[in-house]
Amino acid sequence: MQDNATDDQDTETEWAEHRTDWAEDRTILANERTFAGWMRTGMASIAIAVGLKAVFGAAEPTWLPKSVSMIFIVAALLIFWSAWRNAGKAQNRLNAHNAECQPTRTFAILSTIFSIGAVIIGVVLWML
């Protein structure tokens, strides 16, 4: 009897470890989805900036619609860099088991590219 109890405990422990590993993999994938969601939110902020400039572009004084648009460009930059920082911190705390996770460098590269694009859009909006 004792031997069966030990085997059952070992099996239960093994399954509990598998469930924990799977939960960590799900968390890694959820972190990547959250990062993508924040990047979309940043892009939406840029779209609002472009839309505001298009709608209020003829307003006087001209610096006013440009300034309001720039608020959304700055918000997009903050969103991009916050997403990168938080996704990287979360990814570094977790260990992948079966999931193939993105390297934290990918988060940095994407955030940098999106930020450069936001700055360029901001410059173009200000020059219009």
Automatic annotation (TrEMBL):
Q: List where in the cell it is found.
A: Endomembrane system
The segment(s) forming the DUF202 domain are 26-89
GO CC annotation, single: endomembrane system
Show the InterPro entries listed in the entry.
DUF202 (IPR003807)
UniProt organism field: Jannaschia helgolandensis
Q: Does the keyword Membrane apply?
A: yes
* Membrane topology listed for this record: Multi-pass membrane protein
Tell me where the transmembrane regions lie: 35-56, 68-87, 107-127
Coiled-coil segments on the chain, per record: none
What protein name applies here? Putative membrane protein
The question of whether Transmembrane is a record keyword is answered with: yes
Source species, domain of life: Bacteria
Q: Which UniProt keywords apply?
A: Membrane, Transmembrane, Transmembrane helix
Chief location bin:
membrane
